[in-house]
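Hello forum,

I keep getting stuck at the same step: I have a sequence, I want structure tokens, and every attempt I make locally crashes halfway through. Rather than fight my setup again tonight, could one of you with a working pipeline run this one for me? It's a single chain of 441 residues.
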Amino acid sequence: MRPNLISNLFFLIFLVIIFVLDVNILRMNPLIVIFLASILAYLLFREKMGKKLPCHFSHLVLLYLLFLFISDILLRNHQLLYFIPFSLIPLLVTIIFSDLEVSLIMSLILAVTFSFQLNNLFWGIIVFSSGIVATLASWKVRKRVKVIQAGMLAGLVQSIGILFMYNFKVENPKDYVLFFLNGWVCGIIVSGVLPLFEYLFDRITNISLLELSDLNNPLLKQMILNAPGTYHHSLIVGNLSEAASEAIGADALLSRIGAYYHDIGKITKPQYFIENQPLGKVFHEELSPSLSKLIIINHVKEGIELAKKYKLNKRIIDFVSQHHGTSLVYYFYIRALENIEKEDKFDDESFRYPGPKPKTKETAIVLLADSVEAASRAMREPTPSRIAELVHRIINNKFIDGQLDECDLTLKDLEKIAEVFIRILTSMYHTRITYPKKGTT
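Reply #2:
Ran it on my machine without issues. Output:
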């Protein structure tokens, strides 16, 4: 079952449970309905202005209903307030969706809702303050321990809030400790359930991305052993992509990790790709251009199959499927034209990758970095001027060929990307001084 279908199913189940249990919030002041409708109107206006939500709207509603369900059950059974996970949802929203504005809006919604549940504005302020701290402390977090630390900071804010509520009278020290532990436990829970919500919402977090960069990952291990040239190529493409993404405000970590895996399809037949071939041995010399083209193009399909076999996230699989777009396999196309009398009739479409074209800035950057890195290796004299000319030519060709039509890259972005590529490649291929031989003057 697809993740979005599962999340929608959970959404419906929670909705039914809340109505069946007659959750208190449904019988509260209609002002809460006006407030929620206003937030919905703002989010819809936000999308209309071009700032798309980082998720389906049902995902946010599902998380809201989850908090509503937990808080109402505990309040209904007269449980103590420090059992309610105040910072749980803000932490999840921030880490999974990586949208600061949406995270703060969710904190505000939870705070207003909770203040209505208790008919106490002060508790709403504590929930909102805790949510803000949890959001800021977990923004672009890359380690699970940082998630726990963010929860601890949120718990500290909750304890300070209680201190203000008691007018700085330390009458019951246990309350301060328990509200601090509340935030700490929320951080621990979030770090544990992240994989579940990543699957449920079809997302990938920075924490999971860094785990994929581990060299003990089976796919990377296979690439290092079976296709070392491809692995080295992927590392350079990753560095180029990360730097270019930072320059235009795209997701740099996602670009780098996506680049690491974009060529995993070459693992199955590494000897047919030039970077893995031994010196003096070219396997394609014995094959017709049409057969060579099929082998080269097929590495995309085989990469997708490997990615699914090893259960890679869909956002990583997008790099595998889109890193060539519908580009022409130019070398073998030219060879086929030279042997036109020996070949069957064909058109250039049969020598193109199946696509799809890049849909995001990150996959488009990897497409460009992949082409630029491969072409720069073939340069005989990689001077700065030649590198600059090569980078601009490749980017212009991809643009004219329509490979960037379906992503959000602007001409200004492309210029920044070109500058980064030129700077890094020039540094890589810089000349060195000639050292004198030992014993000479």
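The radius of gyration is 27 Å. If your local run keeps crashing, start a new thread with the error log.
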